[in-house]
Design goal:
By secondary structure, this protein is α/β, with parallel strands linked by helices. The chain has ten helices and nine strands. Helix 7 crosses helix 8.
Length: 286
């Protein structure tokens, strides 16, 4: 899992059999599937690293000149759950590449960059913060997260998630779709997560529950720099982009109405949004 030594700041993502649309591996992601992630990362000055387990056969991805592609053996998984397995692979990537300084881990299907997160979050990184996304609704209003927490709470033999943080009205889920920071902070985070994943490998719902548990209860919120998970459709205006550039180095703290972020996550939820983002990014870098 070697990353060339000239790349000390990376954005890493993973594609695994079973994580994609069809668990039998019959879905083979094409370049178009990953193009928004790859192209926007490169255009903003990021070096993308893609880890896969044989689920990709598109030569345009496998031999892309602008990124590092790493293949792993699917028979050597630590977890049968691909959503948990990615954390073990992220940790192994960090252990095998001591030259890395800062790393962001990202989803690939629905993430589009319009700033380099290493530059955008420079202040937070310098203060050893873990940068993480906050979802759009608190735990009590987020049915998907509550579902996962309820499943986790039925397994006290693995982890007691019956904690106050999930009961507070102002507690918001943190999204594992994009997070990062200095290498040492990421190793600390991933060690805590993976240690709890090993006995939970048979449970499909544990990934987000354990991710939030570790961040809120083990590492504690004061060690985090939190920003919003995407942009509301009515904010995608020229006025917003001017405001965003004006506050280029700002790091958003949770529950603030000023949504400043270097990337768009879940862009597929708004019709036409991806094309709008592509046009703006192209204009910005021409």
């Amino acid at each position: 899992m070697n990353v060339p030594s000239k790349h000390t700041e990376i954005v890493a993502t993973i594609m695994l059999i079973g994580e994609l649309e069809k668990e039998d591996g019959s879905f083979r992601p094409t370049y178009e599937y990953a193009a928004p992630f790859i192209e926007s990362a490169l255009l903003t000055g990021c070096h993308p690293v893609l880890i896969h387990d044989g689920c990709i056969d598109d030569e345009r991805i496998l031999h892309h000149p602008g990124m590092t592609v790493i293949s792993v053996d699917p028979s050597k998984r630590t977890s049968p759950n691909p959503f948990m397995e990615r954390y073990f692979l992220y940790l192994e990537l960090l252990k095998q590449n001591e030259h890395l300084s800062t790393i962001f881990f990202s989803d690939v299907r629905d993430v589009f960059f319009y700033h380099n997160p290493h530059r955008f979050f420079k202040h937070a990184i310098e203060h050893d913060k873990i940068i993480v996304q906050e979802e759009w609704s608190p735990f009590t209003e987020n049915k998907e997260y509550m579902k996962r927490l309820n499943v986790a709470n039925r397994r006290p033999d693995i982890l007691d998630l019956n904690i106050a943080i999930y009961r507070k009205e102002n507690a918001w889920p943190l999204c594992a779709g994009f997070f990062g920071g200095r290498r040492n902070k990421m190793i600390e985070l991933l060690n805590e997560i993976c240690r709890r994943f090993i006995p939970a490998c048979d449970c499909q719902e544990f990934d987000m529950a354990i991710f939030n548990y570790v961040l809120y209860e083990i590492l504690t919120p004061e060690k985090l720099a939190i920003f919003k998970c995407g942009i509301k459709a009515d904010q995608l205006t020229d006025e917003f982009y001017r405001y965003e550039r004006k506050h280029y180095t700002m790091v958003l703290v949770s529950n603030n109405n000023e949504y400043v972020t270097p990337l768009m996550h879940h862009y597929e939820t708004v019709v036409g949004l991806l094309e709008n983002l592509r046009k703006k990014l192209t204009l910005q870098h021409n």
